[in-house]
Each structure stands twice: as structure tokens, then as C-alpha cells.
Amino acid sequence: MAARHVMAREYEYLVPADLGRANCHVVGVDCFAVLREFVLANREGDSPLELMHLCSPRGIGEAIQLQTS
User: Fold this and answer.
1) Which contiguous run of DSSP H or E holds residue 25?
2) Which sequence spans correspond to the domains of the chain?
3) Can you give the pTM of this predicted structure?
């Protein structure tokens, strides 16, 4: 399968394909797992340098929310 680009803006959500929801950017399940591990490995609390964080918005389930830089 060819690589696919996802363009998302701050405060938008990335969700795995098996949980795809309206108003969210869908990425492959494997890609989501890699991004999830990246977010967990690079946590810095409430650091302004943290660009993504894990969350569970109501009606969406587990998601990665993009932050401002």
C-alpha cells in the first residue's frame, strides 16, 4: 500500500482506521500505534513543546490531539 499523507491542523484529532469518526483524521491502525508510542515516550507534562497528546473525547474513543507549537 502506498504511503498516504494526512494534513491536520492544531487541536484536530487523529484516530485509528477501525475507530474512524466524523471530524477526525483517520490513520492506519499500525500508524496510530506508532504515533501513540511516540506520544507516550515523549511526554513532558504540560510542556509547551508537547505537540501531541493522548485523549478520549466523548463519542470518539482514544485519539491523539494535535497541539499548537
Assistant:
1) strand 25-27
2) 13-66
3) 0.79
Q: Are 14 and 35 in contact (CB under 8 A)?
A: yes
Task: For the chain, state the CA radius of gyration.
Answer: 12
Q: Which residues lie across from 26 on neighbouring strands?
A: 15
**Tens-digit pLDDT string for the chain (69 aa):** 567 788 888 889 999 988 767 778 999 999 999 999 999 888 776 665 678 889 998 888 899 999 875
Q: How far is CA 34 from CA 28, 30, 57, 59, 64, in A?
A: 10, 6, 20, 23, 11
